[in-house]
Amino acid sequence: MRSLxxxxxxxxxxxxxxxxxxxxxxxxxxxxxxxxxxxxxxxAHKLAVFVSHHRLIPKSQQKxxxxxxxxxFGKEFxxxxxxxxxxxxxxxxIMGLKDIGFGFVEIGSVxxxxxxxxxxxxxxxxxLDMAIINRYGFNxxxxxxxxxxxxxxxxxxxxxxxxxxxxxxxxxxxxxxxYVDGINTFGSVCDYLVVNISSPNTPNLRKLQxxxxxxxxxxxxxxxxxxxxxxxxxxxxxxxAPDLRSEEKKDISDIIKLNExxxxxxxxxxxxxxxxxxxxxxxxxxxGLSGAPLKESSTQMIMEMRKLTKGMTIIGVGGIATxxxxxxxxxxxxxxxxxxxxxxxEGPPLVSKIKSELEELLQKHGYKSISEAIGANIK
Length: 379
Hints:
alpha/beta; three-stranded antiparallel beta sheet; 13 strands; globular; mitochondrion inner membrane; membrane; mitochondrion; Dihydroorotate dehydrogenase (quinone), mitochondrial; dihydroorotate dehydrogenase (quinone) activity
């Protein structure tokens, strides 16, 4: 009986090892990820970052095709699929994320000084809705620690393109200074910068999206970026909330066209405080909702902001779990897209799956490159 148990355990171990090595989608989705979900969501998140940090997931053997390459901000992205901010908050997992096939990695949100974030529990899975609610509250190791990690990663010749998502400290008396400090700290070590004023989990943060506050903030960060002693200067993006009213979106589009406030792009969109019809146990938890319930509204907002800004570069986020989802956001006006919540449910093979499906769709509809499809649905 003992021998039978040993043999069975060995067989199961070998089978699991082969499935992990070969990045078997069904095994990850139906076996491995449900096992990971036996852990508390935040512990599972920490495990995922640990595994990525130590590059324990076998590297994807998928070679990005020419059709998936896209040039944005003067930089060539090997594919348009990135990891959204919130997964690798402190720059620990950069190379591991590159290994599983991401075309770019966004770090953060990073605050000037280390802070623990909100009290636990602060992240909840909604499996029946393929969604997540989080209220992390910008837990961060701080500028200095994260800058060191990015600098070390940059020493690797295979380092991916890196964006840094900037936040403010919860107790800060001068949020504008926090963002300016972020520009000055990371401007020379990243490929783009994001001003995140749309998280719902830091008190009063979203008030910075208001017309007068936004003008004041953008004047300061644009000037800080323009005076950086680097060439070329990093593109500056603004991350928006999905809960903005139509007039607020119009105000933002008008402000970012002003020379002194002109950013290079938008990230559309952050998590929502709205609660559509949800089926899962934790659906009434306070925090930002992400994942499948955000898919349609984020795609619509991409199209709306693309029209309002007369074609500004947009990174599309919200509910992407298939190549079709990514394709729809690209046709709505996104030059690049990001995923996160769907990765929680399907695991690393999802990245390759989305890229393969996206490539098939582009070819099926006669596109020779991502660039040709961007904004195709805008009339």
